[in-house]
Amino acid sequence: QVQLAESGGGLVQAGGSLRLSCADSGRTFSNDNMGWFRQAPGKEREFVAFVSWSGVVTYYADSVKGRFTISRDNAKNTVYLEMNSLNPEDSAIYYCNAARDKAALFGSWGQGTQVAVSS
Fold first, then answer.
1. Per residue in 5-14, pLDDT tens?
2. What is the pLDDT of residues 22-71, one digit of tens each?
3. Nearest to residue 39, comparing CAs of 83, 99, 94, 2?
4. Among 1, 17, 96, 105, which has the minimal tally of Cβ within 10 Å of its Cβ?
5. Within 10 Å of residue 104's Cβ, how many Cβ atoms?
6. Across the strands, what pairs with 50?
């Protein structure tokens, strides 16, 4: 059973950094490709970053390329999103999920973690 839990969000000033974490207490996802997604108020949920099951392949949405880094530690069953040079447009609720390319694999989502960037 998928039980995703995201953490690490908060309020930061523009230019600041945050590190998000995602764990699944219901299953191991060491064999899954994983992704980060985000949803801002009034907008559709969108793809942010992808990491393959091995951690070797990563890619990003154009809007975060060069500023965000996705990684994973399969021994800890955890996926991370390092976010640098944050700007107010990055403000959203951030979610993780198993991923197929830039789409979420599971229909079930965790509660997400709120990121707010002040100007």
1. 999 999 999 9
2. 998 888 888 999 999 999 999 999 999 999 999 999 999 999 999 999 99
3. 94
4. 1
5. 18
6. 35, 59
